[in-house]
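Weekly sync, protein design subgroup
Attendees: M.S., D.O., the rotation student, P.L. (late)

Item 1: inverse folding check
M.S. brought a backbone from last month's batch and wanted to see whether the design step gives back something sensible before we order anything. D.O. pointed out we never logged the input encoding, so this time it goes straight into the notes. Structure tokens as presented (120 positions):
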């Protein structure tokens, strides 16, 4: 029976290949040499990342134009698909958006209330 003997000496240490060597990255060196605190952009948005301001304003202008064309500045459930298209959201959001906004006594969406809702 032949045994294989490993060639280890008492002085050699086993190499742990799971731990990377202590090498400073460029960011670490930059932070170490810098006296100012680094700018770290916000990365957590509890309510979702807000759209750019220009996109929101463009959408608001489009919505105002659509509501201007509607009688009494109100949109019925049948015409609400146009509003959903202007908001650039999927069509299956039509009913949830319609139900989330405050409805007038005749069951239509008031344009001013919807615009206030959409700004939020």
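Designed sequence read out in the meeting:
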């Amino acid at each position: 029976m032949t045994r294989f003997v490993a060639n280890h000496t008492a002085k050699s240490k086993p190499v742990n290949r799971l731990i990377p060597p202590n090498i400073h990255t460029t960011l670490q060196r930059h932070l170490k040499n810098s006296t100012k605190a680094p700018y770290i952009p916000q990365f957590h948005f509890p309510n979702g990342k807000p759209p750019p301001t220009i996109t929101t304003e463009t959408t608001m202008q489009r919505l105002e134009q659509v509501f201007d064309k509607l009688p009494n500045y109100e949109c019925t459930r049948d015409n609400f698909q146009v509003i959903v298209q202007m908001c650039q959201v999927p069509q299956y959001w039509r009913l949830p958006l319609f139900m989330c906004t405050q409805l007038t006594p005749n069951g239509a969406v008031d344009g001013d209330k919807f615009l206030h809702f959409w700004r939020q």
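Discussion: Residues 53-119 form a domain with the Recoverin; domain 1 fold (CATH 1.10.238.230). Residues 53-69 form the longest helix (17 residues).
Action: P.L. to compare against the previous round before Friday.
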